[in-house]
Amino acid sequence: MPSITPLILVLASLASLAPSTQAETVLGVYIFHRHGDRTSKSFAPTTLTNLGYQQVYSSGEFYRARYIESNASSPIYGVSPDVVKNSQLSVQAPVDTVLQTSAASFLQALYPPVGNTETLANGTRIESGLQFIPVSAVATAASGTDSENNVWLQGQSNCQNAILSSNSYFYSQEYLDKLSSTAGFYKSILPVINGTFTAETDTFKNAYGIYDLVHVSTIHNSSIPSSDLLTDEALFQLRTLADDHEYKLAFNASEPIRAISGSTLAAQIVQDLNSTIVGKSKAPISIEFGAYASFFSFFGLAQLPKASENFTGLVDYASSMVFELVTNATVSKTSYPSNDQISVRFLFSNGTAAGNPLTPYPLFGGDQSSTLIPWTGFVDGMNKFAIGDQVHWCNACGNSTGVCASAADSTASSTSSKSSPSSSGGVSKVVAGVIGALVTLAVVFGLEALIMLVGGLRLVNKKRLSGHGTPENAGAASVATKA
């Protein structure tokens, strides 16, 4: 029998000549996260529940195991595994108790306590294990201030055209038909909610508020009035009607301005990921807690319903979407990938990631085989709808007063707002000013509110003056960017 040793040697030699495949490296991530379980918006102030704390904490544990700890499944390049380096993280949440508390809870799990002893000059030993990570408080178009105490929040974006677009839904034939066809259903469950809603307000107009009240009650209340009316079919219908109601308020393909929160979020995502690349992963983690309507708006703009119709439904508590910067190139202190060696992967978990799969999906209408997008292609796709500088925002929103006064005659400059990244890895300054501009807007409107309060003035909804109704619980011409 002839020896096979020479053949083995030949095969081994050929294998040594074959190009090796570099394992994928995660260069950085952007995580957009919803808060955990909370009390009902029908009874302000809303607060994060113990269940909500547990949900976001377990999500933090999941992302720690995925990206941070020493044996992480997809470790982020250069990230500190145990003792937090605050320079490596950027964490934001709106000026809202539920969202701020959710962010803090998440971070407690992302970097859990470590043994830390400090000895004072007099010899006293001080022990502390907690790690403190600052959460920047921002007022943005994505969520607004005190988001969880309001049902109708689009007005908090201060974007006039977005407000008008969302309000126009309530005069569409589609809405009027749904209002009529569901009247009987809502009447049938009135005994369940008549402590909060009346026969006049118990309609599809308040689909989300009604669903929210019932949903929270089924989680926390040991008894519910006329609970026999809440059959599985009735609960399902409440949820799907709320899905439809909220998605239509957050996104309309023919009126992209309605999705202003998704547009500003897209700019923030590109800005933060680009900063990771430019800084060579010195600050690789960006986390933002925000409203569920921002998910809706972004889903619509990024054409995610083409990947799954589930992207037109309300995201569950503690849901998260993730944008991973990845490369197959060698990464070291002396070698960092070029733009053409970097890709982006989008993933989504409906509910806390600890109990729901974090699944990749294609952006921009691509098929399931295209979940990994080259960096430049990702930026081009996002910049088709991203709004990230003051001039572009003011022009798109039709605002011409306050901080937008100087932008009214600067429409020509807004054409630069969709510029592609430079060859060095940078994007144009379009995406650099969104948070600052919108925080300034919030301050301006806050000062206006203070002046009105001191002066005894009040806002009056023009539609109400003219006899046209707006949704119950609405502020002055305000509709939905809800959390």
UniProtKB/TrEMBL annotation:
Residues 1-23 form the signal peptide. InterPro entries: His_Pase_clade-2, His_PPase_superfam, Histidine_acid_phosphatase. One of its GO terms (molecular function) is phosphatase activity. Coiled coil: none annotated. Pfam families: His_Phos_2 (PF00328). The keyword Signal applies. SUPFAM superfamilies: Phosphoglycerate mutase-like. The chain crosses the membrane at residues 430-454. This is Phosphoglycerate mutase-like protein.
